[in-house]
Design goal:
single chain, 335 residues, alpha+beta, six-stranded mixed sheet, 31% helix, globular, disordered N terminus
Length: 335
Amino acid sequence: MKTNPPAARPTEDGLIARYFAPLAGYGADGLRDDAATLRPSPGCDLVLTADAIVEGVHYLPDDPPASIARKALGVNLSDIAAKGAIPRGFLLTLALPDDWTEAWLAGFANGLSEAATAFGCPLLGGDTVRSAGPALIGVTAFGEVPHGGMVRRMTAEIGDILCVSGTIGDAALGLPLLDGSQPKWGDHLGSAARGVLIDRYHHPRPRVSLAPILRRHARAAMDVSDGLVGDLTKMLAGGGRSAEIILSDVPLSDSARAALALDPGLIRTIVTGGDDYEILCAVAPNYVDGFIAESLAVGIPIARIGTVVAGDRAPVFRRPDGSEHAFTTRSFSHF
C-alpha cells in the first residue's frame, strides 16, 4: 500500500511568519528584521527581566501548549508587576525538540497571543532554534515606570508590615495532582477543588494591575516564585532585618484549605513549593490601609502576614500558639 510522504516542516522564517508575526507590536517591523526598537514614554525608565521555563522542570510534557505559553509570559510579567512597572513588550527564545509538531506550535502561539493581548505586551522579536534536549522557552520582558519609581526588592525597613496578594500554595498543590505522584489527599479532594489547584499550576496570574498601587504604597516588593518562605528570606537578607510571620495569616484558597484539612503536613508544600506568582511586599504601617483598599478596588485581595523586625536570623513563621514552625527546605531550588 502506497503512503504519502510526511509533509515537510516549515522553515524558521515560515514558522515566524505563520505563528509569531501576528503577535508583533509596533517597532518590531512584523518580525522581519534582526532587532526591534522600544522607546520608553517620556519621563519613564525601562524595567527588564528574563526568565525561562524548561520541559520536565517548570512544566510537564503533557501540559496544554496554550497553558505553557501563558506560563512562560506570565512568570515574567509577574516580575515586571512586582517592580511597579507596566508591560511594554517581550522577546521570545523558543528551543524546540525533534518531536515538535505544528499542532503543538499552533496551540502555543494561540495561548501566547491571548496572554500578550490580555496584558498589553506585544512580541518584539526573539529566536527559534532546535534543541538537542527538552523544549526551552525563554522570555525577556520589558516594562516601564516613572523615572526613579521602580520598587526594589531589598529596601524594607524595620517596622514595615509584610503583605501578600491573592492566595499562596495553590499551584504547588496542583502539581502533584498532575505529575503522577498520586497523593492520598488528592483522592479525597473534590473535583472542583482539584480543578482550582490544577488551574493555578497551569495559569499564573501576574498582578499587573497592582503595579501603580505598589509604587504609591510599597517600600519593597518581589513576586513569590520559589516559595513564600524562601522568597521572604531573600527579600530581607542582610541589613540586620528579619521577620515575624503568623502562619495562620498566610492567605489560602478554599481548595488549599480543603487539602490541608486532609493532610496538615501540606503546610510545608504550601509555603515553600513556589509557582504562586503573587506579590510579597513591605509597606509602612501608615500606608497599609490605603494599599489594601486600593488593591481591593482593582479586585486583588491583600493579606497582612507579619512584620519586619530587627535581627540577622531567617524569618520566623509562628503557629497560633506562638511556637515556631521550622522549615528544613525553604524554597524550590533550580540547582
